[in-house]
Hints:
Blueprint (H helix, E strand, L loop, with lengths): L4 H13 L3 H11 L4 E6 L4 H12 L3 E7 L1 H11 L7 E4 L3 H13 L5 E4 L4 H8 L13 E7 L7 E4 L9 H17 L6 E5 L10 H14 L7 E6 L1 H5 L1 H6 L12 E3 L3 H15 L2 E7 L5 E3 L6 H20 L7
Helix pairs in contact: 2-12, 5-6
Amino acid sequence: MAIPIFERQATAEYQTKRDHEKYKHLLEKAKALAPLPTAVAHPCDESSLSAAVDAARIGLLAPLLVGPGAKIKAVAEKCGLDLSGIEVVEAPHSHGAAERAVELVRQGQAEALMKGSLHTDEILGEVVKRETGLRTARRISQCFVMDVPGHTEALIVTDAAVNISPTLEEKIDIVQNAIDLAHALGVTEVRVAILSAVETVNPKILSTIEAAALCKMADRGQIKGGTLDGPLALDNAISAEAASIKGIRSPVAGRANVLVAPDLEAGNMLAKSLSFLAGADAAGIVLGARVPIILTSRADSVTTRLASCAVAALVAKARRENPAKAVA
């Protein structure tokens, strides 16, 4: 049956909006670098294995596939994936794969971790172990680098996956991790909106008080590298018109490129709303450990998976160039 012309036009318009220009820019920057040695923990399904193989094929990653060798090869054969030239490191099961992948980083054989077909808690549990993990002085936090159709630049949204109800002290690291990520991606002016439901400090809403405190900390040099404003509601953080109507004047209001959610629930809902209602793609990365940790989902598109790898490559590059500054 022929598709009505208005539906064809709508589809064409939607595809045009999803040209992934912001992600393409990240990919080009990352492909100019040497492939990033990456320990991929338990890539035992088509989604995670193909992400690693695709990233290797275009020169983003030099993956070490960590897990049951026979199972990984069986998945590759079933899905028609060519593993030639890619090393498989034997580990008996998902937990063992997470442990061995972290060990490869500690041994200097990998500069990044990538989540395979195991739960996020399983790999992060190995990362945060005091004696054998990859902890730093920073709090570990997650960021999405979001390519939102119709928005002029990529948006960094944090934290939608790791810190459930972060304290003010933990939010300092969450904000700093996001700022350092923005610099690693080449953002020259980092404008951070500390989000809440309202744009005024309300003693009954804790997130507004913490937002104000974070902004004052930035004024005092306790948070570096970005311009902060908050509390800001989402509309006046990203819409200049909304900010103007509310009479909010700051370098951030209406122009934010980093959005800091008050807690995991808000961050997760914001990111998924952008993805499923606005057609955005979300490249996930975990920061605050010794190396960047690539988070992919079975629902991710190929472009999103590769963008996550590109983000990790750029973060690792920034870390090599300035090891004294904890960007990951």
